[in-house]
Design brief:
Layout: H1 3-8, H2 18-22, H3 28-54, H4 60-74, H5 90-106, H6 109-122
Length: 127
């Protein structure tokens, strides 16, 4: 029994010993693959929105709307404060839904291909 377990009392659940935490329990290659896949999944819509913003054929109003939605999502001031249970994130959800809908309406094959090339640069596939 470790000193931490003895101090916690007899009914406390066992605390992991440092040897367990430092052991080779985690498969690092698997973890890297999972993180790379998660990164690609999260980065794809962001890169597509970015490429849409810088594309010359995107209508000016669409660019302004995307920038406004992104600004609203990033600025800490909200119409409905986030700390209000259940209602706090609804305004953010509306902004995000509008942003994704707008992006999908204006995404062209060229924009998607440029985003895919950038995604492949940032998150190379493991071979």
């Amino acid at each position: 029994m470790s000193a931490a377990q003895a101090a916690a009392g007899p009914s406390a659940p066992p605390i992991l010993e440092p040897e367990v935490l430092q052991g080779s329990v985690v498969d690092e290659a698997l973890l890297v693959r999972l993180l790379r896949r998660a990164g690609r999944t999260l980065a794809r819509p962001a890169l597509e929105c970015f490429e849409m913003l810088v594309d010359g054929s995107t209508p000016h109003q669409a660019r302004v709307t995307v920038l406004a939605a992104l600004t609203y999502l990033l600025v800490p001031l909200d119409l409905i404060p986030d700390f209000i249970p259940a209602a706090g994130f609804t305004d953010d959800l509306v902004a995000l839904t509008a942003l994704l809908g707008l992006c999908h309406r204006h995404l062209t094959t060229d924009i998607r291909e440029r985003a895919q090339r950038r995604l492949d640069q940032w998150f190379p596939s493991a071979r």
